[in-house]
Amino acid sequence: MVNDNKLVYSYLRGKMLIAQDGINEGSEAEVYGWVLSIREQKTLSFVIVYENRKQVQLVIKDKKLMSSQLKQNSVIWAKGTIKITDKAPNGFEIHVSSLKVLSKPKKLPPFNIMSTDVPALDLRLDFRALDLRRPYNINLFTLRSKALQYFREYLISKDFLEVQTPKIIATASEGGAALFPLMYYDKQAFLAQSPQLYKEELTMSFEKVFEIGPIFRAEPSRTLKHLSEAISLDVEAAFHKNEDLMDFLEDMIRYVINRLYEKEGEALKRIKAPVLDVSKKFPRYSYSEVVSWINKNLEEIHEGEDLSSKHLEAFGDHAGGFYFIKDWPLKLKPFYIQPKDGDYSNSFDLMYRGLELSSGGERVHDPALLRKGLKRTGLSAKGFKYHLEVYNYGMPPHGGFGLGVDRFMMVVTGAENIREVVLYPRDVRRLVP
Ligand code: ATP
Ligand code: MG
Fold first, then answer.
1. Which fold has domain 9-103?
2. Tens-digit pLDDT profile for residues 401-422
3. In terms of Cα–Cα distance, which of 208, 231, 280, 253 is closest to 418?
4. In ligand 1, which atom is closest to the CA atom of 359?
5. What is the pLDDT of residues 169-191, one digit of tens each?
6. Domain with CATH 2.40.50.140 in the chain
7. Is the whole model's pTM more than 0.90, yes or no?
8. Are 200 and 363 in contact (CB under 8 A)?
9. pLDDT of residue 163 exceeding 70
10. Which atom of ligand 1 is nearest to the CA of 227?
11. Ligand 1 site residues, Cβ closer than 6 angstroms
12. At 405, is the secondary structure helix, strand, or coil?
């Protein structure tokens, strides 16, 4: 219990609001929160307070209680009696008998958090802590947290072990490009662009692992789908073939989306989230099939060429919702991917319309073949000495994928800019807040 200007409150309540006898007509209740909106009428005022990410309506009849310090964004304590009513959020309101302002805003905010006219993203990101008070964002980031909970739920139910691998590394995991260098004492180090090599090594001992963590990429351009720091859900499993991995990823996506619809309908409705159809099997197109389609419907490209955003978007409009593009040319893939039929690979991307959500595939587990892969991609075996050594002690056949959590949230929420679904996005131009 803490005494704050004679007001006694507990930091450890751990519940939505203190209502001695539950939320019943006539019960006494206390609320601590911040003011979202104030609507003053002739004889009474309605104040919406956010407490623990839930809206509570206060009714203030006594004009003396409406202090000049009570404004949008003020942090308050109030006490009163509960009245059950359909007209208030969550089905009840509190008729206030005492009220105290615990913290009042010192400045006029740069935008109104209740405005239906949403301020420009850059301004909102400059004042992100305030922007996160907008009901839209409270719902969005609640959904993000829930989605992660459901991903974990799924993976743990399939007997995967959650792991954490180093983010400060000595060698690039996939190649030299797009790394952030840093000084590590007197040595050069890098921020990890992916947990790839560690998660592969871990299949040797734990068989099935996953990690949810940051990946760092020095993406040179400012696009709507790239950040310098993104969150990746990485999965790696021994004894899984390409088709097994696609089955697994598809099943996991379906599980998480169904759980969100089942449990978080209210928040999805409030942010006007799109309805995603996951009832049908996700189609699986081979890379070569996509190339044929592009040649027939868009423009001439050659087998073996990488697919540009324009190609992916056009094919995405044709393919619709979720689908896979599999069996990519080997030369477009990193050194650790398992070759297939000479020039191709046992690999896949999960797409939603034109947006890549995940890349994965079977990995090489034979050390000689892994050396060949390094050579093919122009990497020196010396830099991967420790990793190659591991392969001498019985590496199981394995495979996996990395799923961009931020990109998944773009799909769930319908956001067109990845920055909307990230608390404090990092990109070429933005390092603060
Ligand atoms: P893209 O081609 O879209 O740049 P990528 O093929 O380089 O992505 P991967 O190395 O396959 O990316 O990473 C796996 C997943 O991680 C991607 O499918 C994507 O969802 C996510 N991801 C990768 N890079 C970024 C980034 N810079 N910002 C946000 N998410 C990313
Ligand atoms: Mg990829």
1. OB fold (Dihydrolipoamide Acetyltransferase, E2P) (2.40.50)
2. 999 999 999 999 999 999 999 9
3. 231
4. 11
5. 997 666 656 899 999 999 999 99
6. 9-103
7. yes
8. yes
9. yes
10. 28
11. 217, 219, 226-227, 230, 232, 356-359, 402, 404, 406-407
12. helix
